[in-house]
Amino acid sequence: MSIRLMTPPRICALIALMAIALYAVAIGDRVPFSDVPRTLWQPNPASFDQIYVHFSLLPRILVALLAGGALAFAGAIFQQLLKNPLAEPSTLGILSGAQLAITLLSLSAVTVTVGQREIAGLAGGLAAVTIVAGLAKKSNFAPMTLLLCGMVISFSAGSASVILALFHHEYLRGVFIWGSGSLIQNDYSNAIALASRMIVLIPLLLLFYRPLTIISLDEAHARGLGLSPAGLRAAVLFISTLLSATVVARVGVIAFVGLAATSLARMAGARTLRQRLLWGTLLGSALLLLADGLVLVGAPVIGEVPTGTVTAIAGALLMLVLIKNVPHSIDHANTDVLAYGTSPVGGRHVLAGCLVIAIAIAGFSLTEQLTVSGVDPSVLFAGRWPRVLTSASAGAMLAIAGAVTQAVTRNPMASPEGLGISGGAGLGIIAAFFAGGMVSPLLPLAGGISGAVIAFAIILIVARGKSYAPGPVLLSGIAISALATAMISLIVASGDPRASYILAWTMGPTFRATSIVAIIATMLVLIGLAISPLFRRSLEVLPLGDSTALSLGIDPARTRMMLLLFAASLTGVATMIVGPLSFVGMMAPHIARVAGSRRPASLPLTAAAIGATLMIASDWLGRAADFPYEIPAGVIAAFIGGPYFLWVIRSQGRYASRS
């Protein structure tokens, strides 16, 4: 039966019945059916199974219902307030910000109480939503600006959390599993705490029901009635963030529940705010209960995994399905943020400047500490030049792939990282690693290229029905990136002994680079630079649209496939070197374009020089910042790229203006 033919009550009842059936199986494995009533109300102290059901499974059910409902209610409020059907705590960066703050607190204190976690989660969530709202305010809270800022904040906060887990893996493993959204309970304390806070916060938000209804229709009319849009936003954002942070502090990050619940409610016919709040909240409870039931039933086979990881995977897949229903304002969001006027410097000058800077940093990296450490120069040079050359090659490959990706998708904000291509390549490499280890370097290379091709192909398939509009393309990339991150979190939280190696690799370490890797990477970059001029005409014509390309004798589908393979191959190789965390593929073409290098013939070359410079600098900074310990180059590049793009959005204020 189609979702559109089902009413919200029917969908909610169907999901709830499936969840109840799964929990019935989990409970039935522990106690006989005849003993269930006694187990629920007064368990036998001598029966471990009855104690487990009463003090673990029953509170787990309550926590799932309360947490899912709270996140869905907060998501409906965010969507109404920001006029964005895809807004929710995870897409706005609130959950990642709260998780990072709680992780930092766990490292700074010997013991951390739940109350302290809630305060830290609130501080982190408020910091994230303040940054997102502050940047989006200049564009009148345009949908794509909100989503883009939320993506960058989530990406940066998530990267910081993962690198903390990398440096403190044994100490933070429990925190990492909890942060992935584990609903395992030992008593009713979390259920009572969530219920008590929801009893206060949800009625408090309901007091803003009429103002939210009015402000969503016409802000000018709202001001005429004495309402302050800025004050309303601040108050509602604060209370909604407090509600979301409470869930994070109690059970960790449960992503996409609010988005899935409200989207299903809307698709089933819940049009008014009242209907979305009611049925969205009930659907959120039912969906999280269903996800946790799946985790419980599957635990004997695959082991206990965090429920939040399941919701992230399912939510990312659902997001890909729902993209065809995104509104017109998101479809045709303005993407001039990367296409402003050119700089008088010129592309050739930028190219020359980048080469000078790259050579200077590389030279300093190769020769520093010679006099202090007394190391033989030949030994130091032999250890340093492979990583410098490898970093430069990876940055150049990502930059070229980014320039091609932006042309293929007609989206100047696109990049291998932002579109999930790097994440897909990372998943492919991880799959190859688990399948055959590192017996041959060709196996992870093939896995990386295959993963990148599949990720990019999914994006093109999903966005094809939307004429490759920038909004759906970017949303597809966000979904795939979230899926890749969730899968990596699942592996790390699984306790597999290979997880530490995988976690270290995802950070983009260049210290493992060898001379053979450096030479091969350099050869591939040179091949890529030699091939890119062959696509000059295609890169010029594709951004003009499929009809124009056909009239000029270019087959758009076949051309996109060739460019897809080209960009995916470069991305797969670069991801093997520096991991999937980086903004170089997005940043380098943008800097090149702003500097004046707009022609398809010169853009890849200039972008490659900028990308190489960025990665060499990131490698050096990562090694020098906390010497003798090293921060992976991929993380440094991500931390540079995140604030850079937030600054670009803030300074321009034109991205994704409402249509």
From TrEMBL:
Keyword ATP-binding applies: no
MF terms (GO), sorted A to Z: transmembrane transporter activity
Membrane topology: Multi-pass membrane protein
Keywords annotated in UniProt: Cell membrane, Membrane, Transmembrane, Transmembrane helix, Transport
Main location: membrane
GO annotation terms (biological process): siderophore-iron import into cell
Protein location: Cell membrane
Residue intervals passing through the bilayer: 52-78, 90-113, 119-136, 145-168, 188-209, 277-299, 305-323, 350-367, 387-407, 419-436, 442-462, 474-493, 513-535, 562-583, 629-649
GO CC aspect terms: plasma membrane
Similarity remark: Belongs to the binding-protein-dependent transport system permease family. FecCD subfamily.
PANTHER family: FE(3+) DICITRATE TRANSPORT SYSTEM PERMEASE PROTEIN FECD-RELATED, FERRIC ENTEROBACTIN TRANSPORT SYSTEM PERMEASE PROTEIN
Name of the featured protein: Fe(3+)-hydroxamate ABC transporter permease FhuB
Designated gene of the protein: fhuB
